[in-house]
Each structure stands twice: as structure tokens, then as C-alpha cells.
Design brief:
single chain; mainly alpha; two-stranded parallel ribbon; 3 helices; globular
Length: about 100
């Protein structure tokens, strides 16, 4: 299974909870494996990637991993667009969202 966990049916948090704590060399190996996987996925077509970025920890890590992986590729294959988004998750309690009926 890929480190990114596509198709696993588990949330990223569930996968992290199940994973034992790792050493620095293991973390570096995981980052290298993620980098290779991101590069492989990126090379599958010529479309630029758009990364949703909220400024939180998770989106910062994803954007940094993707940025590092793509900038290691040949310059002609580098095309990345970062987007700053507002998710409303940071303003809890201010809005009362109810399903449309």
C-alpha cells in the first residue's frame, strides 16, 4: 500500500495512531518514499497540480512535500499552483450550519 494511503478506507489520523513511533532515519526513509510516490503521480499526466492551502499544519506539510518533490524534477516538468483557501474551521462557534431541507 502507498504511504499516501489512497484507497485504504482509513483516515490519515487512524493510520497515524496505528503506526509505532519511528526513529529519525525511518522518518527520512518515509519522506524519501513519499517524495518518489508524489513524483510518480505527478509524471502521470501533463496537468499542473493545484494544492489547497489553508495555512494549517496539515496543508503546510502537504504543500512542502509536494513542492520539494516537484522541484527535484527536470525544470520543464515543474508546474505547481498553490492556492490559499479559507475553510471556516478556524472560526468555530460563529456559524450555525444546518442541512438544507
Amino acid at each position: 500500500m502507498s504511504l499516501l494511503g489512497f484507497g485504504s478506507g482509513e483516515s490519515p489520523r487512524e493510520r497515524l495512531r496505528q503506526r509505532p513511533q519511528r526513529s529519525v532515519p525511518e522518518l527520512i526513509a518515509d519522506i524519501q518514499e513519499l517524495t518518489a510516490e508524489i513524483q510518480q503521480l505527478y509524471r502521470q499526466d501533463a496537468l499542473p497540480w493545484i494544492i489547497g492551502y489553508s495555512g494549517g499544519k496539515d496543508s503546510t506539510v502537504v504543500l512542502q512535500l509536494v513542492w520539494n518533490a516537484i522541484t527535484q524534477l527536470h525544470p520543464q516538468t515543474q508546474s505547481l499552483i498553490g492556492i490559499l483557501t479559507v475553510t471556516l474551521l478556524m472560526v468555530r462557534g460563529r456559524y450555525d450550519f444546518r442541512p438544507y431541507r
